[in-house]
Amino acid sequence: MRKVAVVGAGLTRFMRRAQETGPELAWLAASQALESCGLGLKDVDSVAIGTAPDAFDGVHMKGEYLAPGAGGWGRPVTRPYAGGGTGVLVPIHAWFNVASGLFDVCLVVAEEKMSTCHPHPQGAFVTIFDNILERPLEPNLIWIFALEMQRYMDTYGITKEEIALVSVKNKRNGLDHPSTHVAEEITVKDVMESEVMVSPVNRLDVSPVSDGAAAIVLVSEDVARRISDNPVWIDGIGWNLDTAYWTNRDLAYPSYVERAARMAYKMAGITEPRKQINVVEPYDPFSYKELHHLEGLLLCDKGQAAKITADGVTQRNGDMPVSPSGGLLGVGNPIAAAGLMKVAEIFWQLRGEAGRRQVPGQPKVGLAQAWGDLMQVGTVVVMRVD
Amino acid sequence: MTERTLPGTPLSDEDMQQGKVLTLNWPASLRYEWDTGVAIGRFLRELKNGRIIGRSCHRCQRVLIPPRMFCERCFRPTDAWQFVQDSGSVNTYSLSHLRWDASRVEEPILVAVIEIDGSSQGGLLHYLGDVRPEEIHIGMKVKAVWKPAEEREGSILDIRHFRPIDTAQDGPA
Ligand SMILES: [Zn+2]
Predict the structure, then answer these.
(1) Of A337, A373, B32, B67, which is most buried, counting CB atoms within 10 Å of its CB?
(2) Residues of B in contact with A131 (CB under 8 A)
(3) pLDDT recorded at residue B27
(4) In which order are the strands placed within the sheet that holds A377-384?
(5) pLDDT at B168 over 90
(6) 10-residue averages of pLDDT along chain A (386 residues)
(7) Count of C-beta atoms within a 10 Å radius of residue B19
């Protein structure tokens, strides 16, 4: 298989409610990504589009709906889907397009507009629960997170205060991100005193609902060498799905994330992830999820992610910076676009182009991860600069 | 890219109230009628009878709750119906201040994953009841509180909720 590189990226602002439609947001991100690497639509061989449930928009065939704004006119277009894991599944899918030799340039676009669904997009999330055994109980989306967080805390003896440090860090990191609509300086006390939504989840433990788009450009090695001085290589990809019978699972540990990570590490030749990976963007829709995912990614021992967070290891200037972008908690969470924003962040970090967000020490290897469906899918990419 | 202003036009509540942008409303009105299937169909029928039934796989030795006609691990048909207890233990729990549509409730809804006794880590999402929130803990032994037989209709709601096992009333757990 051929080597594949990321050579360009683009983002819109993340907003609680955007005036732009989905296709307009897709256009703003996609055109920017192409422009950033000096390519135009004529250079694009294929297009991969990522967007989460259609129910948010009330528009069926959302891939087709977005395609005109995503550079999809008259081209091979696909829309891979894995719920919240979509934002990192789309570049994985795009990697096939290029690594296989079928295409030299694949434009990757992710968009979400959650403000459309009223009174609240959580009303659309009820449809992810088992239609016969769970929906009659009228579950709220946050139930499954709260249930998982409680089990995680109980299994390892982790406190809510320790978990709140993730929100404090990511919302502070987000202050330096130009897309943010939720960054702020907060304290653990602020998190603890914010309203309880579904215990143990408080309002400041949760990322917002957002509108926004992200795009990156994936190319073959030949094209990368020709148009870019500093391509970022996709060295490893991995993804894995656990059972939809979520009430049968071990909720304290995301073994599907571990399986996805091991797949990506093997491909990238990563044998000691804690030493070899310099910067990490794990999926953080809820504060505890960053910790859960660091453990699943084998970047710390089970139950130890809260400790390394408290010790400052995951700060931008720590030994293993985590979510230097600000993540979903600090930038915003337009679902698929948020996952792809994490891939874009690793791209900028490895090129030394992250500005005020730049982690020190010229990182060479980075990882982005997303997660979703019914708490059951892990999607991972490992990226590297020469 | 970091320092420059990114595109996108945020709208505030005020913008919406003042009608600065045009919107179009469309209420979705759809109805679905789901067939409950072979495995869950039987499971629901037994709930109507006041019993919980699973399916066993003789290869991996699991008793599956919710039941399925296939074992997703062995990828073969499951072998037999097997009644399990209407008791279990709390695998995890939560107090929800939100309804399904994110509106707030006065009294928190008590929800849990219950590991059903006699199943292999088989869990059901359900409510807890007849319990003070502060008493709920992981590992707590609980028992189903059924609706009266004449009110049961073959639904997960035939179980009202799970309540703590009371050794005086229920005998030793
Ligand atoms: Zn089996």
Answers:
(1) A337
(2) 32, 34
(3) 87
(4) A77-78, A46-50, A105-113, A211-220, A4-11, A232-241, A377-384, A365-372, A279-281
(5) no
(6) 97 97 98 98 98 87 96 97 96 98 98 92 86 95 95 98 98 98 97 97 96 98 97 98 94 97 98 98 98 98 98 98 98 98 98 97 98 93 97
(7) 8
A73 in any annotated domain = yes
Tokens of A357: 């967000």
DSSP state of A15: B
Signed CA dihedral, A358, A360, A361, A365: sign only: negative
Residue A131: inside a domain, yes or no?
A: no
- Please give the residue range of the domain that contains residue A224: 4-118+208-385
* CA gap A117, A123 in Å, rounded: 8
Complete DSSP assignment for B2-64: TTSPPP--B--HHHHHTT-S----------------HHHHHHHHHHHTT-EEEEEETTTTEEE
With 0-12 CB in 10 A as exposed, 13-18 as middle and 19+ as buried, what is A203?
A: middle
The shortest CB-CB distance from A25 to any of B8, B32, B99 is to: B8
Q: At what angle do helices A141-156 and A287-296 cross, to 10 degrees?
A: 60
Distance in Å, CA A140 to ligand 1 centroid: 31
Read off the CATH number of the domain in which A221 is found. 3.40.47.10
Instruction: Give this complex's ipTM.
Output: 0.93
Is A179 in contact with A341 (CB distance < 8 Å)?
A: yes
CB B79 within 8 A of CB B63: no
Nearest to A247 among B9, B93, B113 (CB): B113
| Cβ B164 vs Cβ B142: under 8 Å | yes
8 Å CB contact between A252 and A297? no
> Is A375 domain-assigned?
yes
φ, ψ of residue A119 to 5 degrees: the values are -75, -20
Which residues, including other chains, have CB under 8 Å from residue B116's CB and lie 6 or more apart?
A: B52, B54, B65, B84, B85, B87, B88, B122, B123, B124
Decide: A323 and A173 in contact? Cβ < 8 Å.
Answer: yes
Q: Which of B142, B139, B138 is nearest to B127 (CA)?
A: B142
Tell me whether residue A198 is in a domain.
no
Do the Cβ atoms of A179 and B6 come within 8 Å?
Answer: yes
Question: How many Å lie between the centroid of ligand 1 and the Cα of residue B70?
Answer: 8
